[in-house]
Amino acid sequence: MSLRSSVANGGADKSSGSPPDDGGQEKQKKLLAADAGFCGFMSILSSMRYCLGSPTSYGNIYIALAFIPFGLFFDFMDGKVARWRKKSSLMGQELDSLADLISFGVAPASAAFALGLRTPLDTLLLSFFVLCGLTRLARFNVTVSTLPKDATGKSRYFEGTPIPTSL
After folding, report:
1. Phi, psi of 149 (to 5 degrees)
2. Burial level of 119, CB count in 10 A (0-12/13-18/19+)?
3. Are 139 and 160 in contact (CB under 8 A)?
4. CA distances for 74 relative to 24, 33, 39, 114, angstroms
5. Nearest alpha carbon to residue 68 among 93, 33, 95, 102
6. Which residues of 122-147 are buried (b: 16+ CB within 10 A; e: fewer)?
7. What is the Rg, in whole angstroms, of the alpha carbon atoms belonging to the chain?
8. Which of 33, 43, 38 lies closest to 66, judged by CA?
């Protein structure tokens, strides 16, 4: 307990049974969501590097495709940590959704574009794919508080398909 809080309470120790501050665990959870977003962003950059390089040099596209499953791993771990802690926050939920959109919407579309889906029809279909993911995540964020949850805090069902299944 800090000196400031003990002075504010008149020097009395406050043992009200409230849980201890777990800011470190909250930061770890947010870091996992940020890691998923990082993997998606690195996949996008690797796809761009492939487009800029020699068409016979496949190293960057392999890297781009490899980052996507790593993003899936971090996304799963983020969910497990949230359920293990039995806590969630609006910030964590939004951060997770943005990381999901980058990792499982924009990154696969960027890799597909880099691999040759570049006609106007292809671009329209890739845009539709990303927008479907965007609307799915927005709808989930709006309705998640009303969905029934099991004992671990996980929603009992999804409305629609979760965006990581786009892989």
Report:
1. -120, 155
2. exposed
3. yes
4. 18, 7, 9, 24
5. 102
6. eeeebeebbeebbebbeebeeeeeee
7. 21
8. 43
For the packed helices 107-115 and 120-143, what is the interaxial angle rounded to 10 degrees? 170
Helix (H, G, I), strand (E, B) or coil at 103: helix
pTM of the predicted model as reported, rounded to 2 decimal places:
0.78
Q: How far is CA 143 from the centre of its chain?
A: 17
pLDDT digits (tens, 9 = 90+) for 42-67: 999 999 999 999 989 999 999 999 99
Torsion of CA 63, 69, 74, 78, to 10 degrees: 150
Structure tokens at 30: 């947010």
Residue 163 neighbours by CB under 8 Å, 6+ apart: 100, 101, 104, 105, 133, 136, 137
Quote the pLDDT of residue 5: 43
In tens, the pLDDT along 103-134 reads 999 999 999 999 999 999 999 999 999 999 99
Residue the block writes with tokens 């959109």: 101
At 155, the amino acid letter reads S
Number of Cβ within 10 Å of residue 92's Cβ equals: 18
Locate 24 and state its tokens: 């470190």
- Residue 50 amino acid letter: Y
